[in-house]
Design a protein that fits this description.
Elements: H1 5-22, E1 33-40, E2 45-50, E3 53-56, E4 64-72, E5 75-83, E6 92-98, E7 101-104, E8 112-120, E9 123-131, E10 137-143, E11 146-148, E12 158-167, E13 170-178, E14 184-190, E15 193-196, E16 205-213, E17 216-223, E18 227-232, E19 235-238, E20 246-254, E21 257-264, E22 267-268, E23 271-272, E24 278-283, E25 286-290, E26 300-308, E27 311-318, E28 321-326, E29 329-332, E30 338-346
Antiparallel strand pairs: 1-2, 1-30, 2-3, 4-5, 5-6, 6-7, 8-9, 9-10, 10-11, 12-13, 13-14, 14-15, 16-17, 17-18, 18-19, 20-21, 21-24, 22-23, 24-25, 26-27, 27-28, 28-29
Amino acid sequence: MKTPIAFLLLLLVAAVSSCKKNSPKPDSKTSNHVYVAGSAGAASDVVYWEDNSLKNLTTNYANGVGEAIAVNGKDVYVAGYRYSNLNTNSVQVATYWKNGFAHTLTDTISPSWAIAIAISGSDVYVAGVVTQSNGMRRAAVWKNEVEMPLQFGANVVSSEATGLAVSNSDVYVVGNGATPEFYGIAAYWKNGVETDLNDPYNSLARATAITVNGQDVYVAGDVGSQSAAYWKNGSLTALSADGISSFATGIQVQNGDVYIAGEAYPVVNGQTANFVYSMVYWKNGSVVNTDWRNHSSSVMNVGSMKVIDTNVYVAGSIGVNPVYWNNGRVTKLSSGAGTAMGITVANN
């Protein structure tokens, strides 16, 4: 018996309809959105980019820089500094912005900078630098715009904060100090208590970024005459840089793997190919990706990093152009001249 064509068409329509009902729809909420903080424009306005869409934060000020960025739900936080006014005697003022609204962290008398930001629940933590009355710099950390105490060794005459992490209720700040002889001390603070990572009179070191994974504290930086390295719970590991000089600017731990971003002089056949720093990142101590082969004639500056699953995002600049890298692939940000300093990725 022949089946009527009309009946076959009806079955086909029903089957397609059933497949549409049972097939999972793409979940737009799980797509990654890339947020980058920096500066842009002739006046060097504080800005951030959301998926390469430019957001300006300081149109009423002379200039400034967004140093770090964090996203919590639909809220976007940028930390950095702005100038106090449009006059020539204005000073840098440590500031963070929440959804474009500025929160000033210090007075407008002495220069100050916000370097890092972290969100934990409803609390906003910011790390940075303030200038003391004697002109020396001092590392600082704020919780909800109130400065929290940091202890300093007796031999520290100046200091700076370079990074921040919050794990459970513990607050970690990383930075550097200087002795009266101006020897450098790489250090981090846990809940205000200082831990030194080097003996300043016997070794050179600098700390630039921090992350916490469980009970383990990881700090990135450099040792000696600029050789990238990291510390895990105070134990030093040198990085296998493909360059004669290198330093680290960001660190993340994902699934037990340690990722570090930074800059290095490239070396080809044992010789320095050129004398400009280029982007590099390491995974568990080995170089995974570099970008000096495509941009060897332009100076690169590398900022922070973010690792999501197996995707490694690094903020920075090539020449005067703000960019970010995703697994080594470069994306130029839409602003013309500028800088890209902080980066995060959110599934919102």
